[in-house]
Amino acid sequence: MDIKEIQNLIKFVSKSGAYEVEIEKKDFKITIKTSNSPKKITNTDPTPVIRTTNIDQNAQIITNDQKDVNTEQIVSENDKYTTIKSPIIGTFYTKPGPDKPPFIEVGSEIKKGDTMCVIEAMKLFNEIESEMNCKIIKILVDDESPVEFDQPLFLVDPY
Prior knowledge:
Elements: H1 3-16, E1 20-24, E2 29-33, E3 40-41, E4 50-51, H2 64-77, E5 82-85, E6 90-93, E7 109-110, E8 115-121, E9 124-129, E10 134-139, E11 145-147, E12 152-158
Antiparallel strand pairs: 1-2, 3-4, 5-12, 6-8, 6-11, 7-10, 8-9, 10-12
């Protein structure tokens, strides 16, 4: 069993809601437990034990196919609006700082060049500016969430 198969098994177990899964073959044994403690993969031969980080049992694993379907649903439901997408991969922030007010809110009217959000990538905070005058209809991403390249961030009504 290679590392990729082990990772896929861990994802499957965490998604299934099972508390514990144990697989034993002639040359190794793997036990995966889903609790609040770190998950362990135990190998009975003298090689080092592999440890994984905590896996949230409630986490939703979204495949690229599902992501495309979700994006298409958002776009088709709101054809009259324009979708503003992420130009980079990183962490999405609606505020310039924890104790600062958000750049924009639903219903805000912004002008071309106004900062809409910040995306942190590799310890650099990149201000994402509006490319048009518009009204914010919906913010599609939660604050402090990871975002992918070309992921929809906002639904806006240009004016």
